[in-house]
UniProtKB/TrEMBL annotation:
<feature type="transmembrane region" description="Helical">
    <location>
        <begin position="20"/>
        <end position="42"/>
    </location>
</feature>
<dbReference type="Pfam" id="PF12911">
    <property type="entry name" value="OppC_N"/>
</dbReference>
<dbReference type="InterPro" id="IPR035906">
    <property type="entry name" value="MetI-like_sf"/>
</dbReference>
<comment type="similarity">
    <text>Belongs to the binding-protein-dependent transport system permease family.</text>
</comment>
<keyword id="KW-0472">Membrane</keyword>
<feature type="transmembrane region" description="Helical">
    <location>
        <begin position="273"/>
        <end position="294"/>
    </location>
</feature>
<keyword id="KW-0813">Transport</keyword>
<keyword id="KW-0812">Transmembrane</keyword>
<dbReference type="InterPro" id="IPR050366">
    <property type="entry name" value="BP-dependent_transpt_permease"/>
</dbReference>
<dbReference type="Pfam" id="PF00528">
    <property type="entry name" value="BPD_transp_1"/>
</dbReference>
<feature type="domain" description="ABC transmembrane type-1">
    <location>
        <begin position="94"/>
        <end position="294"/>
    </location>
</feature>
<dbReference type="InterPro" id="IPR025966">
    <property type="entry name" value="OppC_N"/>
</dbReference>
<protein>
    <submittedName>
        <fullName>Binding-protein-dependent transport systems inner membrane component</fullName>
    </submittedName>
</protein>
<feature type="transmembrane region" description="Helical">
    <location>
        <begin position="140"/>
        <end position="159"/>
    </location>
</feature>
<dbReference type="InterPro" id="IPR000515">
    <property type="entry name" value="MetI-like"/>
</dbReference>
<dbReference type="GO" id="GO:0055085">
    <property type="term" value="P:transmembrane transport"/>
</dbReference>
<feature type="transmembrane region" description="Helical">
    <location>
        <begin position="96"/>
        <end position="119"/>
    </location>
</feature>
């Protein structure tokens, strides 16, 4: 009997079948892929480069969208307070937000999976230590930690230097703040898996604990990890936006969706609502489609919840 290829098995899989039967998942996926492609091809897709100061004029500051009185056809969605094309700034800012979100979740996942796997498999005092550490971590708001660390760093290295390391700072702060979510999820799955017969059989034939954990138990814990990752990416992007809005994240000259909302917020009452409204709308759409895909993936990977 001929063995099916990986691609053939994927085409015949329940996940793909369910995806094409769910219009919400299809639309969400199309929007997310489109936004991601546009963001990561910003030098090509954006009409202007917001980092190129030679193409920016303060005389163009706070121009309204093209369909309003006073709008300029060169700036479809208007300009911000620095005279930058808002559409271009949003595209570049979305790229920064997505990169921070993905990298922060990668850090969360690495820490959380390792800790959850070790705690769940070995149990005992090691399990108690890691879970109490997770409880302590969750008792502190990441915003409080970010404010403290940001203040210390800015005082130690200066505001200018801090702005240069804003991206890695946000990745580390958000990543370290949310790893307990992964640790608890993986630990719960490992506690259920390690009681099954295939784990006992692996021990009987003399396999080492590392091999059992990484080659046998972890692959059977991937479903909840995938679902959690979609939720955590949305949460990480929102966290970046919140920190930038508070002035603790990306600086104004290095736009992200959060910093753009922060920049435009003070101009809302003066009538320049578009500086905040359009980046805010884009952020809502981005978070919404990620969450909708996460809900679909959760239902598909848990057949008891899926209703077809």
């Amino acid at each position: 009997m001929k063995t099916k290829s990986t691609w053939q098995r994927f085409k015949d899989s329940y996940i793909l079948y369910s995806f094409f039967r769910d219009p919400v998942a299809i639309i969400s996926c199309v929007i997310l892929v489109t936004l991601t492609i546009v963001a990561f091809t910003a030098p090509v897709s954006a009409p202007y480069d917001p980092y190129d100061t030679s193409s920016i004029s303060i005389l163009d500051a706070e121009l309204p969208p093209v369909w309003m009185d006073g709008g300029d056809t060169n700036f479809l969605l208007g300009t911000d307070d620095q005279g930058r094309d808002l559409l271009s700034t949003m595209i570049y800012g979305m790229r920064v937000s997505i990169i921070i979100g993905l990298c922060a979740v990668a850090l969360q996942a690495v820490l959380g999976v390792i800790i959850g796997l070790v705690a769940g498999y070995f149990g005992g005092k090691l399990d108690s230590f890691f879970m109490r550490l997770a409880d302590v971590q969750l008792s502190f708001s990441y915003l409080m930690v970010a404010i403290f660390v940001s203040a210390v760093l800015q005082a130690a290295i200066g505001v200018g230097r801090f702005e240069e390391i804003a991206v890695p700072f946000l990745i580390v702060v958000i990543g370290l703040a949310q790893w307990p979510q992964y640790a608890r999820t993986v630990r719960a799955s490992v506690l259920a898996e390690k009681k099954k017969e295939y784990v006992e059989a692996s021990r009987v034939i003399g396999l080492r604990s590392n091999r059992i954990m990484w080659r046998h138990i972890l692959p059977n814990c991937l479903s909840p990890i995938f679902v959690l990752s979609t939720i955590q990416v949305a949460n990480a992007i929102m966290s970046e936006a919140a920190l930038s809005f508070l002035g603790l994240g990306m600086p104004p000259h290095k736009p992200s969706l959060g910093s753009l909302i922060n920049i435009g917020f003070e101009y809302m009452l003066s009538g320049s609502w578009w500086i905040t409204a359009f980046p805010g709308f884009l952020l809502v759409v981005l978070i919404l489609v990620i969450n909708l895909l996460g809900d679909w993936l959760r239902d598909v990977l848990n057949p008891k919840l899926y209703k077809g």
